[in-house]
Sequence to fold (330 residues):
Amino acid sequence: MNATATAHPNIALVKYWGKRDEELILPHQSSLSVTLGPLQVTTTVEFTGKKGLDQIELNGKVAQGAERKRVEEALKLVRLEGGKKLGAAVMISRGDFPAAAGLASSAAGFAALAVAARAAAGFKRDTKAESILARRGSGSASRSIEGGFVRWNRGKRADGRDSFGEQLFGQAHWPDLRLLVGMVSREEKEVKSRDGMRSTVETSPYYPAWAKDAEREAKEIVRFVKRRDLEAVGEIAERNAWRMHASAMGANPPLCYLKPATLAVIEACRQVRQQGVGVWFTLDAGPNPVLLTTAKDEARAAAIVREHGATEVVHCVPGGDAQVIEQHLF
Ligand code: 2P0
Fold:
């Protein structure tokens, strides 16, 4: 009764920012992301068939507090479907990228957990069911079950059965695309995404406009990804990131995730584009810009972030699907 799975994190080109249902993690808008290889999380789950507490270890430490609760909830959902006979679980998870990379490890983490736990419970692979389970752990995890370019459709149902990630183009669609995470700050952010998006929904007068606009952009961007048009994809990604941050800045109290170095990188991207270098940025709920470029301009893009204070640049390419593997962690 054990299984192991791997999954990549993802970076949204059109963002998810705000829930219409906090418990089921249902978004107000659809979002679209690309998975980030080669970064990955590996997770082994064993259902022991015995009563007792779940044992949960994340990156070498026993999980505690809110983190532990979220994993327990996901395991509980698998038991609800697979039956009590599954018993308590032992789970070990390891990421090969530092949490300090500023990339949410929760997306890859809950995606790997969803795939491993369902496989350990004896279910056949089912990307829709896996995405829905991953979503219950962390919204963006619904976009890390399948590789390449994935859209998380917001859905309309109150039970969330139509709110899951769906691959639009596979990993091989755009092999030339590069995604560079520039680490301009390693400080732990003051307001976590979950709290920041809740506050934005509840207090920002700009929130409804943001949600409506993002829904439109999650559709609009597809045809540009389809034709691998970096300029058009980059323009939408930048605009969408600005609008997400604008909605957050409109919250009470205001939320600003940007640092001076973030703005310096953004300005440098704009300047080098005038010299013919194809580089655009996006931003998650944090100060570290992620640059979108192609192999030809990758070195120049990395130099831009380093010149503006990035201590590290993580180079990524579109990643593949979450997979069940035979090399267990225990
Ligand atoms: C995204 N972010 O689309 C957006 C952009 C951050 C900014 O998804 O509360 O960790 O667990 O559903 O998925 C980060 O939020 O939040 C996120 P929960 P999650 O990638």
In short: Residues 247 and 271 are 26 Å apart (CA to CA). Residues 12, 15-17, 25, 31, 104, 106, 138-140, 193-194, 284-285 surround 2P0 (CB under 6 Å). The chain has a mean pLDDT of 95.
